[in-house]
Amino acid sequence: MMHIPAQALQGLQGEALCQLPELLLRPGERWVVLGPNGAGKSTFLRHCAGHPAGTPRTATWRWMGQPLPLWHDPDWARQRAVLSQQHEVSGQLSVHDMLCLASFPWSGRHPRLVTAFERVVADWELGRLLSRRWGQLSGGEQQRLQLARNALQLDLAGDDAPRLWLLDEPLTALDWPHQQRTLTACHEASARGVLVITSLHDMNAAWSLATHVLVLAQGRVIHAGEREQGSFAEALAEAFAMRLSWVAHPRDGRPWLIPG
Fold this sequence. Notes:
There is one protein chain. It contains eight helices and 14 strands. It is of the alpha/beta class and 260 residues long. It has a single domain (2-228), classed as Rossmann fold, CATH 3.40.50.300. The strands form four sheets. A six-stranded mixed sheet has the order 8-9-10-5-11-12, with helices on both faces. The chain has a four-stranded antiparallel sheet with strand order 4-1-6-7, with no helix packed on it. Helix 6 links the parallel strand 9 and strand 10 (195-199). The longest helix is centred in the middle third of the chain and has 19 residues, at 139-157. The radius of gyration is 18 Å and the shape is globular. The termini are far apart. The mean pLDDT is 91.
């Protein structure tokens, strides 16, 4: 469980981005962070991760009743997986070696590493890529590899441990099948008690994924709370200053959000 007191969310240079309300995020929930470019979505996720670029205010955030750990705390690394928008990786690392980095919080040794590794390779269709170097991968393959590394890290943590999965625009560069694999992985993780927090730009993907929504815009929180059809569309319409309407999806009749 993550507790965030009401306070200002600050960016990398210490500037105030918006005023956050008090938030309580619980295991098994899937929070989707939405809003225009520059609204503070990535900054919010960095704060949640205990990123070193966070301001001292981050220390007032709490994880499982304790002050939020700093980024490099080894115990924290066993509970938290992070997918950033930018991947700063050596181009010489192989896919196999990149995946094995998931075991770094356990000093590279874990009794379930081999079986969990094989399962993740199959789930994310990485078998034919294991010997390839990072720099030889397409953008979508790199994104899929990083998602798989996150999934492996959470798997090694075990279902008895508190776990947090932070994803900043996880669908970027992915084709449709792997976008669906990613959304399914988030559902599966939350079903095992993982708290999932992700930013997205695809509003219908967000609607299908979220149990809770945080909408940021114009220096404030437009909406924070459980996903509800009316408030979801109203908050997004205000955040993006555009009209939005719900229609029935032609295939199965589920709600589908469109401009206009």
